[in-house]
Design a protein that fits this description.
single chain, alpha+beta, 4 helices, 15% strand, extended
Length: 123
């Protein structure tokens, strides 16, 4: 099964994983829009004799992978197909967010330690 991903990428799932994914979305109260997004762009696919899949033109256009290099990433139970530069940009965003989170956690830990000292009578 092929469908649009949330980051202008393509998700590839087995029918069994798709069913599980769909059930989990149904369990969420606010997932109607997501279900519409994924279901409305769902394409069944088959693997050919040499292990290839045919990606429909609408998905190739969405992910901007026509005549471009792609990154294929295994993510848990599915695969993501990304246009190479878009994947690199997304990885940089994630890395920066992680670094910001680490910095924030460090600042918060230092603030807690500073508050503990004077409150405990320690300087």
């Amino acid at each position: 099964m092929l469908t649009k991903g949330l980051y202008a990428n393509i998700l590839v799932m087995s029918p069994e994983v798709w069913e599980q994914f769909d059930r989990k979305m149904e369990e969420e109260d606010s997932s109607t829009s997501l279900q519409q997004f994924f279901m409305g762009n769902l394409f069944p696919t088959e693997i050919d004799k040499v292990g290839r899949i045919l990606i429909p033109p609408v998905l190739r256009c969405y992910a901007e992978i026509e005549n471009r290099e792609v990154n294929v990433c295994g993510v848990g139970d599915w695969i993501e197909i990304w246009e190479k530069h878009r994947k690199e940009a997304r990885d940089n965003e994630v890395r920066q967010a992680a670094e910001s989170q680490k910095t924030m956690e460090s600042v918060m830990a230092k603030m807690k330690a500073d508050r503990r000292g004077p409150l405990d009578g320690k300087s």
